[in-house]
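Message: I would value a second opinion on how I read folds in token form. Give me a protein, with the fold worked out from its sequence. Write it directly below this note and I will take it from there.
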Amino acid sequence: MIYFELFYTFFLIGAFTFGGGYAMLPLIQAEVENKGWLPSEQIVNFIAVSESTPGPFAINIATYVGNQMGGIFGAVCATLGVVLPSFIIILIVAKCYDAFKKSTVIQGCMSGLKPAAIGLIASAVVTIGTTVFFPDGYTTAVFGSISFYISLVLFAVMLFLTFKKKLHPILIICISAVVGIIAGYALNLPV
């Protein structure tokens, strides 16, 4: 039963999310938490891991959740579920796009999907930011935690290196991982 549930859940996420993996993130997080498959902290940790591993972001998360819930076959079911809708849709679009690309309905649909995708990505940023910077909720106690300030400084440095120094994303990920590991061991932070 879990295999079908994994496939079906990720199939729906893949079918009704436009804008790529980041736009899928709020749906994935909500579904996984609501079904009790993974706690929020574990999802956030794996988001960081899936960003630094090869392959599409949403597929990495689906594979991970599937593996956690149903082993190898669960990973296959979740991965097929998240990929299959895009595969089917792109085949249909490729076949029919030339016939409909001048249609005002299609152009309107595409115009409406762009802000919705941006909104979903913004939602993911806020949700992940809240989990990273305020893991125990919005309380003033977080300002007494050294891990909050380390996260904030690391975030600011990585923004600077990304936008001002135009450092390659792979270097940003590697530097973030190394600094996070060093800070975690030096301060005995929970992993």
In short: The radius of gyration is 19 Å.
